[in-house]
């Protein structure tokens, strides 16, 4: 494969001139530019993107770390990031990790190796301290609250407290919670809020991510009968739909037998009349992208809104 020196020799120009042509440098005569371009065609030269990156110091690529691409929460945040990146002519490189630390480190190593211009963590398994260590190599933004890195977040503690107050006003006394992970900052904040509100571990159900998980949790609740909660604050609308459908199949009524309050306020919650906490996920993605260009530590808190429907 031909390299820059081969092009320079065949075109009878310097290596510097070839480099300038490759990088669209203005100070090259038209005659030499034409000679270089024609030689590149003859030798079937493909531009070495790494060389261009080194010369410009920018890749025009933004990395996005997310555990799952098919979940509405993350796909909407990603949509917001991609929208802003497209406006600025940047490319998105996705790192789907399934919360595997090794895959998250791969993304961070690409930032360290100058293969990315910045990195956005939609969610993480690594500690914030581990991620912060890579901040010297390029901008890193978190989609959760941080005291040391640029971040955009919602107050998950307050959202649970708001949900509990709403359910109590509606007459529900024993309130449970479903979550995907049993660790993580947002998870910890939701658990802490539930416990501070007077509720207990036995009414927290983990591993709740999709509709099938919701159906399984519904079966657990039906076995508990009166020994279980009479209201649930749920991971997301898809899990809530699974619980809703399983209860209906078993001849149970929502909210008479179980009240449901979910997160995200997607179309499925609207269709099934499930109360939901609306999160500004597109705006979160856009804000995360904007923070890549801010050198100093900045925190952006976004609001949430509880939408009441028939399920509560």
Question: What features would you highlight for this structure?
Answer:
alpha/beta, 15% strand, 6-stranded mixed β-sheet, 3 domains, Rossmann fold, DNA binding, 312 residues, elongated, DNA-binding, Peripla_BP_I, 434 Repressor (Amino-terminal Domain), 12 strands, 6-stranded parallel β-sheet, single chain
SSE order and pairing:
Blueprint: H1 4-11, H2 15-22, H3 30-42, H4 49-56, E1 61-66, H5 72-87, E2 91-96, H6 101-112, E3 118-121, H7 128-132, E4 140-142, E5 150-153, H8 156-169, E6 175-178, H9 185-196, E7 204-205, H10 211-224, E8 231-233, H11 237-249, E9 259-263, H12 267-271, E10 275-278, H13 281-291, E11 299-301, E12 305-307
Parallel strand pairs: 1-2, 1-3, 3-4, 4-5, 5-11, 6-7, 6-8, 8-9, 9-10
Antiparallel strand pairs: 10-12
């Amino acid at each position: 494969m031909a390299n820059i020196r081969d092009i320079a020799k065949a075109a009878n120009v310097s290596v510097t001139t070839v480099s300038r042509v490759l990088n669209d440098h203005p100070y090259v005569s038209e005659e030499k530019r034409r000679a270089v371009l024609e030689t590149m065609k003859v030798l079937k030269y493909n531009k070495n993107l790494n060389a261009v990156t080194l010369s410009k110091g920018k890749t025009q690529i933004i990395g996005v770390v997310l555990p799952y691409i098919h979940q509405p929460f993350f796909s909407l945040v990603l949509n917001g990031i991609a929208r802003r990146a497209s406006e600025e002519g940047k490319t998105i490189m996705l790192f789907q990790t399934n919360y595997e630390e090794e895959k998250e480190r791969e993304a961070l190593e690409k930032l360290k190796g100058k293969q990315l211009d910045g990195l956005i963590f939609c969610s993480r398994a690594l500690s914030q301290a581990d991620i912060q260590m890579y901040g010297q190599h390029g901008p890193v933004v978190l989609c959760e609250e941080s005291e040391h890195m640029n971040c955009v977040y919602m107050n998950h503690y307050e959202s649970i407290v708001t949900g509990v107050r709403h359910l109590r006003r509606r007459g529900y006394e024993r309130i449970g919670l479903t979550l995907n992970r049993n660790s993580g900052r947002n998870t910890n904040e939701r658990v802490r809020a539930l416990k501070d509100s007077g509720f207990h571990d036995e009414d927290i159900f983990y591993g709740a991510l999709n509709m099938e998980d919701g159906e399984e949790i519904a079966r657990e609740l039906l076995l508990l009968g009166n020994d279980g909660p009479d209201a649930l604050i749920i991971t997301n609308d898809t899990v809530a739909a699974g619980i809703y459908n399983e209860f209906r199949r078993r001849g149970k009524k929502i909210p008479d037998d179980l009240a449901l309050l979910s997160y995200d306020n997607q179309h499925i919650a609207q269709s099934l009349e499930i109360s939901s906490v609306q999160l500004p996920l597109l705006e979160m993605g856009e804000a995360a992208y904007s923070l890549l260009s801010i050198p100093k530590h900045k925190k952006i808190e976004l609001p949430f809104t509880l939408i009441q429907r028939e399920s509560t």
